[in-house]
Amino acid sequence: CCQAGRHVPIVDEGSRTRMDRMTATPVFRFAPSPNGRLHLGHALSALLNRDFATTLGGRFLLRIEDIDLERCTPAFEQGIYDDLHWLGIDWERPVRRQSEHFDAYRAALQRLVEAELVYPAFATRGEARAFVAEREAQGVKWPRDPDGVPHYPGLDRQLPQSVRAQRIAAGEPFAWRLDMAAAIQAAGGPLDWSEVSGVRLQDAETLPADPAAWGDVVLARRDTPTSYHLSVVIDDALQGVTHVVRGRDLQAATAVHRLLQRLLDLPAPVYHHHRLILGPDGRKLSKSQGDTALAALREAGNTPADIRRVIGLA
Predict the structure, then answer these.
(1) I want to staple 292 with a disulfide (CB 3.0 to 4.6 A). Which of 39, 74, 178, 231 is the partner?
(2) What is the pTM of this model?
C-alpha cells in the first residue's frame, strides 16, 4: 500500500524472487468455493485451466476458496476433489485453503488501514438501501456497479478516527470498505490489464480498468478478515499465478483487482475470461441448480467425454 508517497510491498523479497524464477513457467489455477457441488460451468473453467497448463508446459494448481466459514463445508470440499478426479484432472499438492491463511489477508488489510485507504462502514445493507431509495425518490440518479448493485453511500467515510474507534470498541458491526476515490488517487495513474485469447493464449489486448465503477467495495468484515477481492489478489501473488483463467462474469471485477495489485505492489497476471455455460433460462449456472451438478450428471450415466462435448471442448 501507499505510505509517505511510496508503495509498501505485501510480498516479501523471498517470495518475489521465487515468482521471478517462475515467470518462465506458466502457472494456472482453479479456485472453487466449497459451498455447493460443482456444475458444468466449473467443469469448463477447470478443464480449460488444466488444458492450457498442459499445452503450454505449465503448472496447474487447485485452491479452495473457503473464507465463508458458514456456507463452506468439508463435504462440499470432498465433492470438489471427487468431481475433478472423475474428470481426469490432477493438481499439485498441497492445496491452498484460504481459511488457513487469514493472517496473510489481515496483514494486507492492515497496510491499507494504515495508509487510510479503507474505512469502517457501520451502515447495514438495509440502511444503505433505504438511503439510496430515498435519494432516488427525490430524482437522484444513483450510481450502480457492473452487477447492478447501488454504490454504498459512504455515510461513515468521513467519521473522525475517535468516533470510529469508539464504535468499534463498543462492538458495533462493521465492514472494511475501500475508499475508492482515495485508492484511485494513491494508485497514481491509469490502470489496465492484459486480456489474452486463442488456444495458446497468445493474442493479447490491453483493456482499461475502471475500479470507480464499483464504488467503495467491501474488503473485509469484522468476523471475516477478507473478501473475495482481497484474498484472490494475495493468493495469486503468493502462489506465483501467471494466468488467471475464469468466467466472463468476473471480467469487470478485474478492475478492482488491478487497483489492489497496484496499491499492494503485487505482480499482475495476464487474464483470460472465458464464455459462460448458460442454463435454459439464459442465465449463468449456479450451485443451486442441482440438475447441472457434475455429481448428478455422473450418476445419470454421463462420462467425462460427455461433459467435454456438452461444454464445447474438443
Answers:
(1) 39
(2) 0.89
User: 9 pLDDT band (50/70/90 cuts)?
Assistant: very low
- Tens of pLDDT, residue by residue over 245-267, are 999 999 999 999 999 999 999 99
pLDDT at 19: 45
Residue 158 has which C-alpha cell? 468521513
Q: What are phi and psi of 313, to 5 degrees?
A: -105, 130
Instruction: List C-alpha distances in Å: 37 to 49, 51, 153.
Output: 19, 22, 35
Q: With b meaning 16 or more CB within 10 Å and e meaning fewer, what string describes 37-58?
A: bbbbbbbbbbbbbbbbbeebeb
Cell 485453503 found at: 97
Closest CA to 42 of 234, 246, 259: 246
Pick from 17, 7, 15: which is nearest to 265 by CA? 7
Measured in residues, the chain has a length of 314
- CA of 134: how far to CAs of 5, 98, 151, 214, 217, in Å? 39, 39, 14, 21, 21
